[in-house]
Amino acid sequence: MTTGESEIQPGVGTFSPAVEDYLEQILRLINEKGYARAVDIAAALNISQASVTNMIKRLDVEGLLKHEKYRGMVLTETGEEIAKSITQRHQILTDFLTLFGLDDDLINRDVEGMEHHISAPTLKVIQELTLRLKSAPEHVQSVKEALKRDGI
Ligand code: CA
Q1: How are the residues of the chain apportioned to helix, strand and coil, as percentages rounded to the nearest 5?
Q2: Ligand 1 centroid vs 138 CA: distance in angstroms?
Q3: Domains in the chain, start-ordered, CATH in brackets?
């Protein structure tokens, strides 16, 4: 390997939040329906189909997805790795915030932002905390009471 050359390492900050969200939705659609179409991605992300078409071209050029005869759009290994990572981050953060009885829309909005910026160590902390809090409901309760006390 020559100096300055580096392998693509999917992780926080490697790809834009938009790219991560597209890959996340494409994987979800493929898992749920067996295929991902531009029209479904546009609906899921609430953006125009023209934008989706442009982004799909970009993801293709960047080697994150490809088109296969009969199967349509599929993620490459790297694309799938990123999609799985963002899906996992989304789930861990949602599990944590759901403990405290926060509003679902609020949780979703916060998680949509946080999932693109959280580092692996911080995510691990939250995952471990969630596990421990699930077996210590008194701590969850005291946090809920603090929220209530502060009128949040
Ligand atoms: Ca997302």
Answers
A1: 65, 5, 30
A2: 31
A3: 17-81 (1.10.10.10), 86-149 (1.10.60.10)
> In the prediction, which pLDDT does 3 show?
45
User: Which DSSP string do the residues of 30-83 spell out, in sequence order?
Assistant: HHHHS---HHHHHHHHT--HHHHHHHHHHHHHTTSEEEETTTEEEE-HHHHHHH
pLDDT tier at 11 (50, 70, 90 boundaries)?
Answer: low
Average pLDDT over residues 22-36: 95
Distance 22 CA to ligand 1 centre (A): 8
**The whole model's pTM is what?**
0.84
User: How does residue 13 score in pLDDT terms, banded at 50, 70 and 90?
Assistant: low
Give residues with Cβ within 8 angstroms of 135, minimum separation 6: none
- Taking the centre of ligand 1 as the mean of its atom positions, its distance from the CA of residue 133, in whole angstroms, is 25
pLDDT score of 8: 45
Q: How far is it, in rounded angstroms, from Cα 125 to Cα 138? A: 19
Ligand 1 midpoint to CA 5 (Å): 30
